[in-house]
Amino acid sequence: MLHPPLERPPDHAKYAAVISAALRKELGNTHCAAKTVMQWTGASERTVKYWFAGTKGPSGEHLVMLAHHSDTVLTEFLPLPVGQAFWETMPCPKPEQRRPS
Q1: The whole model's pTM is what?
Q2: Helix residue ranges per DSSP H, the chain
Q3: Half-sphere exposure of residue 18, counting CA atoms within 13 Å on the CB side?
Q4: Nearest of 73, 2, 6, 86 to residue 33 by alpha carbon
Q5: For residues 3 and 6, what is the distance between their CA atoms, to the nearest angstrom?
Q6: Engineered SS bond to 76: which of 22, 48, 65, 84, CB 3.0-4.6 Å?
Q7: Which residues have a Cβ under 8 Å from the Cβ of 21 and sit 6 or more positions away?
């Protein structure tokens, strides 16, 4: 007997929406923007389109690569509960305290 599909917790939806808004804020919502993110992360076009649409959010290595290339993604991600807890345990400066590169 198969179990009915579980709904994603609201945190996943919020996370995907935050990443989507950050990408669109920095790059716009064009095909060129999607290609740029594909080059940054190595993700497929379909995956990147999910990120821009806010349907799904990046995980693991893709999130790290996005944050590496996009200060907007980094600063929008960090206030989320997981990001905030991460920074509170790290012995490094918070993003607003970073020196410009």
Answers
A1: 0.70
A2: 10-27, 31-41, 45-53, 60-69, 71-77, 81-89
A3: 22
A4: 73
A5: 8
A6: 22
A7: 54, 76
Of 38, 51, 39, 45, residue with least CA distance to 12: 51
- DSSP code of 42? -
In a domain, 4, yes or no: no
Taking the C-alpha atoms of residue 83 and residue 43, their distance in angstroms, rounded to an integer, is 22
Q: State how many domains the chain has.
A: 1
Q: What is the pLDDT of residues 24-69, one digit of tens each?
A: 999 998 999 999 999 999 999 999 999 999 999 998 889 999 999 9
Tokens of 11: 């945190």
Give domain status of residue 66, yes or no.
yes
Residues in CB range of 81: below 8 A, 6 or more apart: 11
